Amino acid sequence: MLKDKIETALNDQIRIEAQSSQIYLAMASWAETEGLGGTAQFLYKHSDEERMHMLKLVQYVNERGGKALVPQLSQPDRSYESLTNLFQTLLNHEIMVSGEINNLVEVCLNEKDYTTHNFMQWYVAEQIEEEALARTIMDKLNMIGEDKGGLYLFDRDIESISLTVDNTK
Ligand code: FEO
Q: Which residue of 19, 118, 144, 154 is 20 to 30 Å from 71, comparing CA positions?
């Protein structure tokens, strides 16, 4: 049985993962309407991954005798100034998520819930990868700057950027 504090913390994390999925879905849709097909595909996939992160938590809470709460979400931004602006927002968001995961891990230790602590290690590892991927993308975009040819190639190649990182799983 989950302690109340742990159940609340896990439900907070469910909301964060669901909101992440919603934000990346909005980013994908914006990219698609801007003619950035590769970026859109990358972000649709990223949105699906966040939904999977949420679902894992929902099922874990219910399996442990808690009640997972499906949250209300807020409206994500509808447009971005540029690709760099979009991916900087994504990186900042992932840094925030990592902080929240760390807080949750701390709650697990304080409450001596070693089962949930163990469960959360998957998220800790996932955040390292997600932040690394977002930083790699930002490095590339900073190198490209405003160069249209470079941005064209970036959009064409972004799916293979994600595959390269995914292969290490
Ligand atoms: Fe599920 Fe990107 O945090």
A: 118
